[in-house]
Amino acid sequence: MNKSQHLYLLVIVLLTLACSSTKNTFTNRMYHNTTSRYNAYFYAYNNILKLEEEIEKNHKEDYSQVLPVFFPIDSATIEQNEELLTEVRDFSSKAIEWHRISKWVDDNYLLLGMADYYEAKFDDASNTFRYLNVNSKKRNIRHRALIQLLKQFIDLRNYDDATYVIDFLSKESRINKENRFLLYKTLAYYYETREDVNGKIGALDKALDYTKDRDERSRLNFILAQLYQREELDALAYSYYLEANKGNPPYERSFFSQLFAQQVAEINKSKDVKRVRSFYDDLYKDSKNRDLRDVILFEKALFELKQDELEEAETLLIRAAKEEGQNEIQKGYIYQKLSEISFDIKKDFRATKFYLDSAIANFRPSHKSYVEIMAKKPIFDDYVTHYDIINNNDSLIRLAQLSPEEQELVAEQFIAQEEARLIREAEAKENQKASSSIFDNLLAFGGRGSGQSFYFDNAVAMQQGNIDFYRNWGGRPLEDNWRRNVQSFQSGAGVDEMEEEPIAEEGTEEEVNIFADLPDKESLLAKIPKTEEQINGLKLQLEEAYFELGKLMFFDFKEPLIAKDYLENLITSYPNSNKKAEAYYILYLTTKELGGNEALYTQRLNREFPDSPYTYSVNNPGAMTGNQAFLESSRNYKEAYDLYYNRQYQEARNRVRNTLENYPLTKNTEKLMLLDIMVSGKIDDTERYKSRLENYIQTTEDAALVKMARNMLKALTGEQSLAEAQTEKDTEDSESESSEDKESEEDSDEGEEDSPYRENPNQTHIFVIALDPDKAKNAKNLLGDLESFHSANFSGSRLRTGNMNLSREESIFIISPFNNAERALAYRDKFMEDFKSSSLDQDDKEKAFLISIENFQELNKRKNLNEYRQFYKKAY
């Protein structure tokens, strides 16, 4: 055996001896340290870095809001990169098992904890971080584990434990720069979740001292600039925006840094205003900003609003809405701002509704603005419904009073106006097309000139031709030989032909549907009411619309003057309206707020409706209201009923009326009024009893109480001898039902004192399916199954589906919107009965629930599903 062979054999022996994971020799330690660090730990650590890069890449920054301190962790991103975390576990576990004497064991434990954290296995992650804090001899690893544990506590909103870790770390010494940076950044995250702006600013300022990463510095400076801007410290905000633009940041951040810096720059002279406008114009013209033009126009609009240039700002926002952009959320902000202008400045509530509709279509259900809009949208929906009823019904009633010849003339004029509108729209498109390219004029060869002489290049000629065809032949399906296929036709399309659905080929829908809203004369005339019954039906709708708009204007829109106009129209046009007493009451409130003579309506209520609860209310303006009033009125109702049952009728009346005077408008008011009428049946004459019953039936909205009053009236107008028996029977039922209602309502109100949630049956609702993260991860087909279910059963409801992480322990799937609880309950019933999906079992379906927008905001803050479910069982 030669020397080289001896040397080779010696190396093999040494390596074999070094492979021992327990023998603590220099050679052994060196081998295990090297192998653990540059093999297992290296690959596992780089996988964690890759995952964090994916989280950052998949996050779309919303620069209109303050940027988050940490990039939000999307469960979908974690799921897509599950293989990376599997490898982390594999590499780190082997490093710990095979290289137990190396100094990289604790580092690998930290990576295992990070893998558990990203997969939302918080108990395992917490145990790993706590273990390292207690057992690791490496100070930096202990600090790093504690900081990550702190971040996890903040994620879970476990502020007590988070505060304890913060206090512990504040007493630690010799924290290295890397950990100190991460600590201050995590502290900023803590203050962010607590909505403590000053704390967040202080923590971010400290974090800047410990990072040399240029991109990280740029982003933190940008966040600080945004915070200072919202605190109206413009000079500081301006300097931080300039800092954010240093260090070669991503183009989009650089763009917004420049853009927002203009918002906080001092503008004192007219030339400065011109300079800023020129700045926005230059940004718009720059080809690099093509995908950001909607943002530029939006920001310029905000600038013009500050200069009180309302019309220019509105024009810019409309232009911004038409621009193509990369971020659909930006479109949501544009429409939201248009809605604010329409509502706050122009008082155009109808336009506000449609802008809100457009805004909400561009926000996800989990977005803050989505929740805000859905909370207020129902009142605008109601406004448009009632406003349109007034406009349409009033016009139809006036048309009904014209002669047939005059009606035909009005219909012809309307059709002519619509045709003229279509021609104007075509001209506008043609003008836009003519100025869209300087190369159009170079197409003069071949006899085409500029294109105007060629029929299919002339939008106006095509529009006029379409109108002429429609006028002569009506809406024809796209088919060959249509003339011969039609058995009979006239120069004008008949009603039956107009009802036939045209068959549009793919790619021609826009051209065919141009005239879908252009009616023929016969269909217009058919809408005009012909009989007295039809006219009366329209008048009833008008009466209801005037009343509801009056209420909306006063209570929801805070517009007492407009409310006063609607309600006075109601009283003038419909003096016998069953809403008159409540209308007088609201007019009393509006007049009082406007500084007018509210005593006028007090007198009218006392003269025309002496027994109305609204009369009691205006006579006792200092009466108690709220939950305490409800509880007191409940006790008094029970006492009054006991007096009535014991035939102490006068005492019962006194107790009822004292209650109505002291607590005039509560949930018990209608029950108290019915009990007062029952007393009237015992001690007043029959005519008064009958009159009060009839009035009660007309004005009361509680269906159960109305049914009871109808039974009493039926007994009175039928066999008189049965009246007393019928009244007694009904009132006994009433007493038991009312007593049960009272007790349940008292229990409910007492529970509500402890519960953060409130019953909002008329508010917009959403339907929620809650799953644990593991099940949600495997529910890949759920959204698709929901879409199919909606197409089959709710095709006209425009339901939206989405999912979000309520917390690290709960994922939720959301179906929205439902205008009120009744519609949401109908959806729930259909869902429980017919919805099938391999991703859900019966237990999951039964755990689904409804929730109002207001309560969803509260749930999103508290993250406690069990707490809400207790309320849900009682409320729904």
Describe this structure in words.
- A four-stranded antiparallel β-sheet has the order 2-3-1-4.
- The chain starts with a helix and ends with a helix.
- It is mainly alpha-helical and 876 residues long.
- It has 42 helices and four strands.
- The model is unreliable at 9-18, 435-456, 482-516, 719-733 and 735-753 (pLDDT under 50).
- Strand 2 and strand 3 (811-818) form a beta hairpin.
- Among the domains are: 36-257, Serine Threonine Protein Phosphatase 5, Tetratricopeptide repeat; 542-609, Serine Threonine Protein Phosphatase 5, Tetratricopeptide repeat; 633-754, Alpha Horseshoe (Serine Threonine Protein Phosphatase 5, Tetratricopeptide repeat); 765-875.
- Keywords: Signal.
- This is Gliding motility protein.
Please provide a brief summary of the model.
It comes from Arthrospiribacter ruber. Keywords: Signal. This protein has 876 residues and is mostly helical.
Q: Tell me the name of the CATH class of the domain at 36-257.
A: Mainly Alpha
Span between termini:
91 Å
Task: Report the structural category.
Answer: mainly alpha
Helix content: 55-70%
- Which radius of gyration do the C-alpha atoms yield? 37 Å
In CATH, the homologous superfamily of the domain at 36-257 goes by the name Tetratricopeptide repeat domain
How is the CATH topology of the domain at 36-257 named? Serine Threonine Protein Phosphatase 5, Tetratricopeptide repeat
CATH architecture of the domain at 36-257: Alpha Horseshoe
Low-confidence region ranges: 9-18, 435-456, 482-516, 719-733, 735-753
Strand content: under 5%
- Please report the number of helical segments: 42
Count of beta strands: 4
User: What strand line-up does the widest sheet have?
Assistant: 2-3-1-4
pLDDT averaged residue by residue? 80
Shape type: globular
Largest sheet: 4 strands, antiparallel
Biased composition (Acidic residues): 730-754
Signal peptide: 1-25
Keywords: Signal
Protein name: Gliding motility protein
